[in-house]
């Protein structure tokens, strides 16, 4: 049972100072912060100041604004979700070490030991991919054998994969500037880069729900979709040499890309997670692995929250995309295939949420709908690039 529900059920709540251990702390949020919380906030401010002083020449006004605005966001995230602090620190340390090791020479990626085998962008992303696959294996071993150790190892491997993936993305950003100042850009511009982003965002959302609901049983399902993305990433790299850093096409040379694409993929990641939770729901309802999966109410709640968060960010991304389109192409909406399918995705989840809130949508119907939504989202994400052409044709496979 959620601790807030336990606290709310008490007829006469005690003051926080007198509350027994384990009950919800009713003090205002800021008063619950300790010295380590404020030290983390100070470290985030110092890190942003370092980035501004060291790399300001590569930033325009909008880049600096995004960096400054991201500080309070990550501070609150670290306050609310403690494990992410170590992740942020690890990404910063590994990324700065890799940047220092390069010494401004991209060719060192093939000669410096740590770059060649661990911390160049390609090496780090390969480690990410391998760790995600191993995590999937251990989650399934843990669930099928009822072994807490298997799930615990899967969770730690997932955290390690996220660390290496984000490190690879940060180092890839730096590598693009080593190729040339006119080439340098945030690494979210093509299918290779956004598949990495999708994997990382989906994993992060899962890890949050894993801690929040105190269950690792869903890892076996959610990591399957991440492993599928990793499989596509490997195929795409081998068949198309997609891991090579390329200059931005003119349509992507905009600061809008830095906020539109991440918001979009928070939506995609949340929708994918909800679909895999829907699979778990349908299996438990039919008695498959029923004794190993969380209660149906928990699965239903995770599915709902994932769709709600994804829908919020996808809505923001759609609005940002319209503003970007007006700047790039002179109109907010052109019924381009990518735009049309984005609208279909938005309408699908808007209808799901409407039926949930207004009609009490629950159970197998909601799960099947979430799973069907993944097919619609996948076509909007990949199918449009494969089979249709339009203003977004720069994203074709």
TrEMBL record:
Membrane topology category: Multi-pass membrane protein
Chain ranges passing through the membrane: 35-55, 61-79, 86-104, 124-145, 157-174, 186-208, 220-238, 265-283, 304-326, 338-355, 367-388
UniProt keyword Transmembrane, yes or no: yes
UniProt entry keywords in alphabetical sequence: Cytochrome c-type biogenesis, Membrane, Transmembrane, Transmembrane helix
Keyword Membrane on entry: yes
InterPro entries cross-referenced by the UniProt entry: Cyt_c_assembly, Cyt_c_biogenesis_CcsA, Cyt_c_biogenesis_CcsA/CcmC
GO molecular function: heme binding
Bias type Polar residues, positions: 1-10
GO process annotations (BP): cytochrome complex assembly
Pfam families per UniProt: Cytochrom_C_asm
Ranges for region Disordered: 1-20
Biological source species: Trinickia violacea
Name of the protein: C-type cytochrome biogenesis protein CcsB
Cell compartment(s), UniProt: Membrane
Gene Ontology cellular component annotations, sorted alphabetically: plasma membrane
Domain Cytochrome c assembly protein positions: 189-392
């Amino acid at each position: 049972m959620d601790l807030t529900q336990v606290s709310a059920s008490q007829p006469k709540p005690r003051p926080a100072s007198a509350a027994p251990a384990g009950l919800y702390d009713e003090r205002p949020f800021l008063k619950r912060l300790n010295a380590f919380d404020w030290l983390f906030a100070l470290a985030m401010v110092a890190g942003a100041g370092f980035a501004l002083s060291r790399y300001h020449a590569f930033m325009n006004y909008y880049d600096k604004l995004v960096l400054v605005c991201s500080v309070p966001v990550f501070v609150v995230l670290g306050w609310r979700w403690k494990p992410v602090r170590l992740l942020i620190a690890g990404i910063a340390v590994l990324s700065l070490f890799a940047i220092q090791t390069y010494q401004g020479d991209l060719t060192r990626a093939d000669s410096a030991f740590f770059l060649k085998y661990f911390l160049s962008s390609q090496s780090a992303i390969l480690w990410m991919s391998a760790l995600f696959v191993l995590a999937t294996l251990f989650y399934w071993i843990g669930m099928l054998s009822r072994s807490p150790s298997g799930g615990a190892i899967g969770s730690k491997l997932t955290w390690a994969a996220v660390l290496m993936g984000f490190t690879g993305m940060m180092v890839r950003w730096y590598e693009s500037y080593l190729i040339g100042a006119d080439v340098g850009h945030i690494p979210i511009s093509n299918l290779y880069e956004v598949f990495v982003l999708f994997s990382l965002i989906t994993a992060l959302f899962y890890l949050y729900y894993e801690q929040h609901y105190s269950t690792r049983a869903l890892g076996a399902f959610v990591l399957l979709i991440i492993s599928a993305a990793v499989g596509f990433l490997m195929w795409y790299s081998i068949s198309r040499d997609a891991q090579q850093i390329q200059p931005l096409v003119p349509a992507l040379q905009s600061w809008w890309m830095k906020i539109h694409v991440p918001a979009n993929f928070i939506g995609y990641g949340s929708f994918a997670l909800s679909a895999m939770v829907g699979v778990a729901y349908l299996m438990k309802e039919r008695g498959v692995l029923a004794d190993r999966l969380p209660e149906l109410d928990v699965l239903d709640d995770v599915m709902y929250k994932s769709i709600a968060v994804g829908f919020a960010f996808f809505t923001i991304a759609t609005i940002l995309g319209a503003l970007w389109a007006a700047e790039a192409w002179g109109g907010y909406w052109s019924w381009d295939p990518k735009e049309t399918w984005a609208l279909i995705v938005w309408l699908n989840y808007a209808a799901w949420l409407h039926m949930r809130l207004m009609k009490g949508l629950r159970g197998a119907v909601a799960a099947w709908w979430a799973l069907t939504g993944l097919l619609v989202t996948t076509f909007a994400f990949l199918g449009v690039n494969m089979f249709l052409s339009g203003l977004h044709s720069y994203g074709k496979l």
